[in-house]
Write a structure and sequence with these properties.
By secondary structure, the protein is an all-beta fold. Helices cover about 0% and strands about 55% of the residues.
Protein backbone atom coordinates (compact mmCIF):
# COMPACT_ATOMS: atom_id res chain seq x y z
CA UNK A 1 0.00 0.00 0.00
CA UNK A 2 1.20 3.50 -0.90
CA UNK A 3 0.19 6.71 0.81
CA UNK A 4 0.61 10.22 -0.56
CA UNK A 5 0.41 13.18 1.80
CA UNK A 6 0.34 16.78 0.60
CA UNK A 7 1.38 19.82 2.58
CA UNK A 8 2.03 23.51 2.04
CA UNK A 9 -1.38 24.82 1.09
CA UNK A 10 -2.81 27.97 2.56
CA UNK A 11 -4.09 31.47 1.95
CA UNK A 12 -2.02 33.89 -0.10
CA UNK A 13 -2.57 37.21 -1.79
CA UNK A 14 -2.61 37.54 -5.57
CA UNK A 15 0.93 37.65 -6.84
CA UNK A 16 2.19 35.61 -3.93
CA UNK A 17 3.86 32.22 -3.88
CA UNK A 18 3.37 28.83 -2.30
CA UNK A 19 5.38 25.64 -2.38
CA UNK A 20 3.43 22.41 -2.16
CA UNK A 21 5.02 19.14 -1.16
CA UNK A 22 3.79 15.59 -1.45
CA UNK A 23 5.61 12.67 0.11
CA UNK A 24 4.89 9.08 -0.79
CA UNK A 25 5.36 6.38 1.79
CA UNK A 26 4.65 2.71 2.21
CA UNK A 27 5.52 -0.01 -0.25
CA UNK A 28 7.53 2.15 -2.61
CA UNK A 29 9.44 0.39 -5.35
CA UNK A 30 9.44 2.62 -8.39
CA UNK A 31 7.07 5.50 -9.08
CA UNK A 32 7.24 6.36 -12.75
CA UNK A 33 5.30 9.60 -12.87
CA UNK A 34 4.08 12.02 -10.24
CA UNK A 35 1.74 14.89 -10.80
CA UNK A 36 -0.43 17.61 -9.39
CA UNK A 37 -4.12 18.08 -10.08
CA UNK A 38 -6.52 20.69 -8.83
CA UNK A 39 -10.25 21.03 -8.47
CA UNK A 40 -12.09 24.27 -7.87
CA UNK A 41 -15.68 24.38 -6.60
CA UNK A 42 -18.09 23.63 -9.40
CA UNK A 43 -15.33 22.65 -11.80
CA UNK A 44 -13.86 19.36 -12.88
CA UNK A 45 -10.49 18.18 -11.72
CA UNK A 46 -7.70 19.22 -14.05
CA UNK A 47 -4.09 18.29 -14.52
CA UNK A 48 -1.70 21.00 -13.39
CA UNK A 49 1.70 19.43 -13.97
CA UNK A 50 3.37 16.05 -14.25
CA UNK A 51 6.93 14.85 -13.95
CA UNK A 52 8.49 11.50 -14.78
CA UNK A 53 11.19 9.71 -12.86
CA UNK A 54 13.62 10.94 -15.49
CA UNK A 55 12.69 14.57 -14.93
CA UNK A 56 10.55 15.25 -17.99
CA UNK A 57 7.76 17.70 -17.24
CA UNK A 58 4.52 18.93 -18.69
CA UNK A 59 2.26 21.77 -17.59
CA UNK A 60 -1.24 22.98 -18.16
CA UNK A 61 -1.26 26.11 -20.29
CA UNK A 62 -2.88 28.05 -17.47
CA UNK A 63 0.11 27.57 -15.16
CA UNK A 64 2.99 27.35 -17.59
CA UNK A 65 5.74 29.89 -16.76
CA UNK A 66 4.32 30.39 -13.28
CA UNK A 67 4.47 26.93 -11.68
CA UNK A 68 7.39 24.53 -11.48
CA UNK A 69 7.13 20.85 -10.68
CA UNK A 70 10.08 18.90 -9.34
CA UNK A 71 10.73 15.65 -7.53
CA UNK A 72 13.23 14.02 -5.27
CA UNK A 73 13.34 10.40 -6.35
CA UNK A 74 15.38 9.32 -3.35
CA UNK A 75 12.81 10.79 -0.99
CA UNK A 76 9.78 9.89 -3.12
CA UNK A 77 8.59 13.45 -2.90
CA UNK A 78 7.10 15.74 -5.52
CA UNK A 79 6.95 19.53 -5.23
CA UNK A 80 4.99 22.28 -6.88
CA UNK A 81 6.41 25.78 -6.69
CA UNK A 82 3.62 28.23 -7.45
CA UNK A 83 4.53 31.81 -8.24
CA UNK A 84 2.51 34.81 -9.39
CA UNK A 85 -0.62 33.23 -7.99
CA UNK A 86 -3.99 34.38 -9.26
CA UNK A 87 -7.45 34.05 -7.73
CA UNK A 88 -8.28 31.56 -10.47
CA UNK A 89 -5.64 29.25 -8.98
CA UNK A 90 -7.84 28.76 -5.94
CA UNK A 91 -8.60 25.06 -5.65
CA UNK A 92 -7.90 21.89 -3.76
CA UNK A 93 -4.61 20.53 -5.03
CA UNK A 94 -4.01 16.80 -5.19
CA UNK A 95 -0.83 14.94 -5.88
CA UNK A 96 -0.71 11.54 -7.48
CA UNK A 97 1.67 8.96 -8.79
CA UNK A 98 1.68 5.64 -10.50
CA UNK A 99 3.49 2.48 -9.56
CA UNK A 100 3.09 -0.82 -11.36
CA UNK A 101 0.15 0.58 -13.28
CA UNK A 102 -1.78 1.64 -10.21
CA UNK A 103 -2.62 5.25 -9.40
CA UNK A 104 -2.33 6.69 -5.91
CA UNK A 105 -3.79 9.96 -4.66
CA UNK A 106 -3.17 12.26 -1.77
CA UNK A 107 -5.91 13.74 0.37
CA UNK A 108 -5.62 17.20 -1.13
CA UNK A 109 -4.53 20.55 0.24
CA UNK A 110 -6.45 23.80 -0.07
CA UNK A 111 -4.90 26.73 -1.89
CA UNK A 112 -6.78 30.01 -1.67
CA UNK A 113 -5.62 33.12 -3.50
CA UNK A 114 -7.46 36.20 -2.31
CA UNK A 115 -6.82 39.74 -1.20
Amino acid sequence: QVQFVESGGGLVQPGGSLRLSCAASGSIFSIYAMGWYRQAPGKQRELVAVITSGGMTNYADSVKDRFTISRDNAENTVYLQMNSLKPEDTAVYYCNGDQSGKMYWGQGTQVTVSS
